[in-house]
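for the recovery benchmark. tokens below, seq after
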């Protein structure tokens, strides 16, 4: 089973460029998870009859949002967290309420849950660093562990954090900046310490490859990037992990697609 994840930075944009269509034709994903769709179902002309479309769009128009395109019909679908995580204090801040932004979409399959996430960023001046640390990351980990009580879990998407120095081109210059703060990195460490595998790093322990590049100063052409998109998988799935790739050759967004192949 080939599962892909891609922050498209606007689904209508990648469709208008023909980037999504050519990507799907070439790589033939069984399941494709998208983040930052910035659209509601029907606003983007998606002609993929072999896929079932599942959308979780933000209440705010043209913002955030996730979607799953799947050839395999899910047993169930969940939009957002369980009530237990929704009840965490502090969800509303000066930037809004992440629960209303279509950031979590879960599809249940025979052997695992697939959670598609678009994690809020910390903001350039770190105004949302505490929100990430004290609300979002805790709620997401709680949700992952709650799902795991029923069956193994795969979580994919844009986590808006580079975990280790190897995961960005210029770690020293960016230490303490949004996406590379101690608290954001600790959030990823907490996922890994609670029984989840960073699948790409598991199979490529010493390789430096990126999934996001700034639009500024020709960063992508110079490969000055960050690895902030991940597939995390429950430890129980370790033997089923056959391949993990970062497809930095695929254009169309400031992110590139990532892949996980499961037996």
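predicted aa per position
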């Amino acid at each position: 089973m080939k599962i892909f994840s891609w922050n498209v930075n606007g689904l209508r944009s990648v469709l208008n460029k023909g980037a999504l269509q050519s990507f799907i034709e070439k790589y033939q994903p069984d399941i494709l998870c998208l983040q930052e769709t910035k659209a509601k179902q029907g606003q983007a002309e998606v002609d993929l009859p072999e896929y079932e479309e599942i959308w979780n769009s933000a209440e705010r128009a043209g913002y955030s949002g996730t979607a799953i395109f799947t050839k395999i019909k899910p047993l169930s679908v969940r939009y957002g967290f369980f009530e237990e995580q929704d009840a965490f204090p502090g969800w509303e801040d000066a930037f809004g309420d992440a629960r209303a932004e279509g950031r979590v979409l879960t599809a249940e399959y025979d052997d695992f849950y697939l959670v598609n996430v678009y994690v809020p960023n910390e903001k350039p001046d770190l105004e949302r660093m505490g929100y990430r640390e004290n609300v979002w990351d805790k709620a997401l980990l709680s949700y992952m562990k709650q799902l795991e009580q029923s069956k193994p879990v795969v979580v994919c998407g844009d986590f808006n954090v580079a975990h280790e120095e190897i995961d960005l081109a210029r770690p020293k210059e960016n230490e303490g900046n949004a996406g590379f703060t101690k608290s954001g990195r600790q959030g990823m460490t907490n996922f890994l310490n609670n029984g989840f595998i960073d699948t790409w790093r598991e199979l490529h322990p010493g390789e430096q490859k990126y999934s996001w590049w700034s639009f500024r100063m020709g960063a992508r052409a110079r490969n000055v990037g960050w690895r902030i998109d991940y597939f995390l998988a429950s430890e129980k799935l370790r033997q089923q992990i056959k391949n993990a790739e970062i497809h930095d050759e695929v254009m169309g967004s400031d992110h590139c697609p990532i892949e996980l192949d499961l037996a």
